[in-house]
Amino acid sequence: MAQKKSDLEKSKLLKAQGRMKLANAANRQSGDAAVTSLDKRERRRLDQAKGLVPFAVKLPETLIARLRERATAQDKPLQDVVAELLEKGLSSPKGTSSAA
Predict the structure, then answer these.
(1) Could you give the count of Cα atoms lying within 13 Å of 23 in the half-sphere of its Cβ?
(2) Contact status, residue 77 vs residue 27, Cβ threshold 8 Å
């Protein structure tokens, strides 16, 4: 069944608003302002070219809040702060454990 012109326009508006919300969320997470026009497939291709791999973990809320505060204070994307901290932790003498 065909939609009325007004319903069609509402639908277009809702779709555009949804795309804008997704783009804003992606920018907050990645820190790149130029990423707004990329779709998921293109972003995945660029991340793979950079050698980035998705890695989901479950962490306490307090730790996440501290990570976000640090990322905001350093004006860096959250993923960069987490990668930096993991690199420091793993390269320190305490970070390496020998399972013998």
Answers:
(1) 13
(2) no
